[in-house]
Amino acid sequence: MTLRELRHRARKVLGPIPYDYVAGGAGEERVLADNEKAFDRYALLPRVLSGSETRDTAVDLPGARQAAPVLVAPTAFHRLVHRDGERATARAAAAEGAVLVTGTAATTAVLDVVAAAREAAPRPPVWFQLYLHPRGEVTRALVWRAEDAGCTALVVTVDSPVFGRHTRDLRNGFTDLPPGFAAENMRGLPGAGPDALTPIPMSPAVRWPDLAEAVRGTSLPVLVKGVLHPDDAKLAVEHGAAGVIVSNHGGRQCDAVPAAVDCLPAVTEAVAGRVPVLLDGGVRRGSDVAVALALGASAVGVGRPVVWGLAAEGETGVRRVLATLRDEYDHTLALCGGRRNADLTADMVVRNGGAG
Ligand code: FNR
User: Fold this and answer.
1) 76 C-alpha vs ligand 1 centroid, how far in Å?
2) What is the ipTM for the molecules in this complex?
3) Which domain holds residue 46?
4) From residue 338, how far is each of 232, 279, 285, 351 by CA, in Å?
């Protein structure tokens, strides 16, 4: 089964409102569609007679060594799609040796997410995603919850000064979580209330010094997620980021930005190897992972496919998604004559329909 087929299976088990919440994007969903289509515009140019029987696909990331260059991007409210929610996702990611990025909008408290991951692996890499708040004490409270739970890195999402306009949710009148669901990490903190669909304080008043303060206030590495402009990638590194994640939030924020993968080469060049560059948005096949790595990413995140796996088959489904991508990627690496991730280089990617 391909990851695209999994979406159809998830659609059958989910009600239309949660399905739309996950599947949808902002505005006319132009960026949502382009994230996937963009990968079709790239082709791989394999090298021959340079491979080996076994390949090493492991990757070292801040606060994590992963079996493959694929991690679980932060997506909200897993209990909305499966009764086991984030606990199932956490066990699956840990069993597959992949980083799980849980976050502020999880329907399971971070302490319980890390505990579930530890049922599957002794030292599972769990990262915590948050938004910066102009009131530093709100940010510090969230950071403290993540540190206390045993997270090994933080992900600060910077592409959301305001919440995106999600057309399908607006049409469906989906503004609050159903009774019994809450953003557990927001309990006791200022915001719209843990059962609001946007329980997370986001603010356009947040600026670079707030990032620097957050970096100073924790001993954990801080990755900055949602960077598209190369100059912002440079600023992120200058303000202490341990990694930069090229992302347009899966097409859920500004509906006029480029596909995420199209922003990768310029960001890679700007960062110049100082910190790892990661990418998410539209990754659906192992060959997409290979293209992203060849264009300079150290690893990629997957958002919706993980949620489809969770909805369709719970923990097993999430494991299937991660294992499928890892196997497809390893196969692609073999077909391209590579032995390790670094063997995929920019000269091995061409624009589809012609070299260069
Ligand atoms: C997201 N994403 C997201 N990002 C983030 O930083 N904090 C969050 O709470 C969420 N929540 C969220 C919910 C849902 C339902 C989706 C689909 C996405 C964005 C996510 O981390 C990632 O950037 C995209 O999902 C990547 O694109 P793909 O893999 O879904 O195409």
Assistant:
1) 7
2) 1.00
3) 3-341
4) 32, 21, 17, 20
